Amino acid sequence: MVMVNLILILLVGGVLALLSERVNENMPRRVALAVVLFDLIYSLIHLSGMPELTQLQAPLPDDPSTWLMHFKADWIPAFGISIEFALDGISMLMVLLTLVLGAVAVSASWTDVIVRRGFFEANLLWTLAGVLGVFMALDLFLFFLFWEVMLIPMYFMIAIWGHENRGYAAMKFFIFTQASGLLMLVSILALVAVNQSATGQWSFSYFDLLNTPMAEATAHWLMLGFFIAFVVKLPVFPFHTWLPDAHTQAPTAGSVILAGILLKTGAYGLIRFAVPLFPQAAMDFSYVAMVLGAVGVVYGAVLAFAQTDFKRLIAYSSVSHMGFVLLGVYAWNELALQGAVMQMVAHGFSTAALFMIAGGLQERLHTRDMREMGGLWQQMPRMGAVAMFFVVASLGLPGLGNFVAEFLVLLGLFQVDPWLTAVAALGLITGAAYSLILMQRAFQGEPNPRLADQGLMDFGRREMLTMAVMMLALVGLGIYPQPILDIAQPVLQSLLEVTP
Amino acid sequence: MNAQLMMALMPILMLSLTAVVLMIQASVKRDQSVAWVITALGLLLALWGAGYARGFTQPVTVLLMVDDWGLFFTTLILVAALVTLILSKHTFSSEGERKEEYYLLLVLSVLGAVVLIQSSHMVSLLLGMELMGVALYAMIAFPEKGQRPLEAAIKYLVLSACASVILLYGFALIYAATGELSYAGIGLKASIAYDQNPILLMAGTAMVLAGIGFKLSVVPFHMWTPDVYEGAPTPVTGFLATVSKGAVFVALTRFFVEGQLYEYQSLMTALAAVAIASMLIGNWLALRQENIKRLLAYSSIAHFGYLLVVLIALSYGGAEAGLIRESITFYLAAYILTTLAAFAVVASIAGEDERKNNIASFDGLFWRRPIQASSLTVAMLSFAGIPLTAGFIGKFYVISVGIQSQLWWLITALIIGSAIGIYYYLRIIFAMTMSAGSSADMSANDEGKDQKNIAQDASVSSQDVLAMLLLTIVLLLGTWPQPFIEFAGRL
């Protein structure tokens, strides 16, 4: 019930935020922040109360009782569809990441959103609810439902509060994810049909569908349906073209959620569904996936380097970083998977922070074009220092979370394919190049005379507090990553046992 | 004819009675609002009759088959007619014309639709279709002012007449081949006839399917659809899209199943080609439409393409017949309800003003009339097949059936079609989220407009109630479909 409540709190909170606009136009953001923090505390209370956390055991993929939490209730029994949620170490990490970044996103919208604030905060909370559903649902029908439905509030956030080209970006975002989602729907239904013809029972439960016997060719096609849906969301070259537009045009809070959380649903889907449901097919396919990942790492980095739009640069850097996740997942050994999980968390924080900085700049300068910036550190030293921190985090400076993640991925990948490792390692070098050029163009160098006498406001207390949270998280992940690894380890171990 | 049979015919009797009463009323005292009330009462009585007849399901002569399945669709169509009636009141009341005949035509057309749904014989099929169609021509042309309705009606009349002729010719050929006119009889004799002279039978059924395909407006018989949708008064367009098409599809299913047409491979290949073309071309042509009624016309072409997939699955085995029937029931119900929701909004926003049917006139609807905008949003999402709406469960059924029958080409077309479809459904939603003014003075400008519109719209809140009701039904079917699935399974 805890998991259902987590989602319900956000859904109801969204309605409250919407209504609270009638009281006072500043009310919605306060309500939204309160709701997200309440949800976070609620989840922490229930998680800390669980004895299993201190002595995590490997959850058996096909036995719900070994998971941290499990909830099941009938929904559409005619098709064996139930409301089934379950939580293990990885989904727990993702849920916590979602809620923390949710609070960050509310903070990012604090002064950014000036019209229809109630509806904005409501959409933000509903998106979070949808994402939580994706991370916890283990009934494939329910999972698909959350997967699709979380797009609608996100669509509204981009379409209503986005920047100059929002209509195009929102449409592209929706069509890409929706069309690939249809492929996944066909795969899900076909998987269920195969399972039904084998057992005579309709069931959409993950636990029933694991180990469905099927012909090799069938498995390959079905796996592909899931794979495409997830890598479009991740995104991976060549399915990434929606991302720069959506991330650039979304309002700051939207970008934070998109980059910080929504991309992770794709990675999560790969780890949870695409590989375990079709272990053999996924292993046969792994080389292709890894090549796509390595191409993504380099391609994203090169394109990032060429951008003049601050947000677009960060967006392309996400393509590069998510390439590491794909590499980590399909290398499919413990080190690489640990790295992938770590990357999901660390990238969530670093990119969210960078998008917030981009939002801060846009709010102050009314442009995202780096050619119009320059020397901003002098006027806004706090913002400059914060940006420096996250830029070096993003390029993989040792001691911060992203380094641990990428290092683990490369280490694990080396055992599988040294050549691809060499290609992917290029991403670290190019990463340094585009990250530093971002810093150089925006904050260093000759101050732009046009901005000299504008009296730009430095980061205020709210922004610094938000940034501090994410800095602490990244330093913590970088210096002492063991807790995260410990939480993920049993899950990964049991997943590794699923595959041949 | 004994009493039992009369009971089974209750909905038809009630509708006929209403038609007679309306005619008498028009000769005694012409009064529009009285006619409206009589029509409403008549439709409600027919609804009661449809429920009452459930106790007496049986074949009524060779012409009609009264069964639970038909009665369910009868109910649905009567509901659609009621919605049309409510919308018509708003649309037509503004003009100072005589409207009594319009209600009479509406009742006659519904009567035709009910006969069509229950037909089990080619004679009743033709009778129902013509009664429905002829009344519909007049309904389309009913607004005396303006050329467009007239143009649409003529277009529909001429092409419809051609289709009827082809249909009749098909009947003749089938009769020549089998010597039967009832569906069941054709089903019995067709295989022998096929062995003797396959061309005669195939040509006949192909012509019948072409005639029916015209009414369903599947590609390549779709040319008339956008013009007629655009030209007809909006409530009539809604009526055409739901009552007419729904009833024809039910009739097609009966003819198809009882005539055992799914046995013939060549016919199925042709039907598959029609389905694929409808899904792709329907969605493709909808992309560039600026008029929302034309857009919905093309969208409905695509939706009947999806529905044909289920019908084609019959011949390939794989899926259980029960599941296929359930799929048709669910999809058609979801389509009819969603279409009603969409047209209810279009009718109440645009009214009879032609210029207001452009997508641009829906700009910022969310901030002007949130209830109508929400209803249209849900309708669009349901058409696009997004979860939590009735349309998604419908699509879920179609894809399930397609997969179980391994119709991969059709599923591919369905996916491509749906992916294209998302674009134009989203365009409407996006238009509704836009702000009417420029972004700088957006808030101030809108505030003022909001105030004005709220005051202006207070008088038509009954339309909001209708929109809310349809929105709730569409969402309820999507979120909690179990009761309806069980119900559909029992039909």
How many structural domains are formed by the residues of chain A? 2
Show unreliable segments of chain A: none
User: Shape of chain A from CA axes?
Assistant: globular
Strand order of the largest sheet of chain A: 1-2
> In terms of structural class, how would the helical and strand content of chain B be classed?
mainly alpha
Instruction: Name the beta content range of chain B.
Output: under 5%
Estimate the global geometry of chain B from the Cα principal axes.
globular
Question: Which protein chains are joined by the largest interface, and how many residues does each one contribute?
Answer: A-B, 32 and 29 residues
List the secondary-structure elements of chain A in sequence, H or E.
Answer: HHEEHHHHHHHHHHHHHHHHHH
How far apart are the termini of chain B?
26 Å
Helix content of chain A: over 70%
The percent range for strand residues of chain A is under 5%
| Number of distinct beta strands of chain A | 2
Short summary of the structure?
Chain A is built from 20 helices and two strands.
What does this structure look like?
The complex is a heterodimer of chains A (500) and B (491). Helices cover 74% and strands 3% of the residues of chain A. With 500 residues, chain A is mainly alpha-helical. Chain A has two domains: 1-277, no CATH class; 279-500, no CATH class. A two-stranded antiparallel ribbon of chain A has the order 1-2. In chain A, strand 1 (69-76) and strand 2 form a beta hairpin. In chain A, helix 11 runs parallel beside helix 13 (310-331), helix 11 runs antiparallel to helix 14 (334-365) and helix 17 packs parallel to helix 19. Chain A is globular and about 75 Å long. Chain B has 491 residues and is mainly α. Chain B has a domain at 280-491. Chain B has 21 helices and two strands. Chain B has helices at residues 3-8, 10-28, 32-52, 68-93, 100-118, 122-140, 148-178, 183-196, 198-216, 224-231, 234-258, 265-286, 292-313, 321-350, 365-368, 370-384, 390-404, 408-433, 442-457, 461-479, 482-490, and strands at 58-60, 64-66. A two-stranded antiparallel sheet of chain B has the order 1-2. In chain B, helix 3 packs antiparallel against helix 4 (68-93), helix 7 (148-178) packs antiparallel against helix 9 (198-216) and helix 14 packs antiparallel against helix 17 (390-404). The longest helix of chain B is centred in the first third of the chain and has 31 residues, at 148-178. The chains are: A mainly alpha (500), B mainly alpha (491).
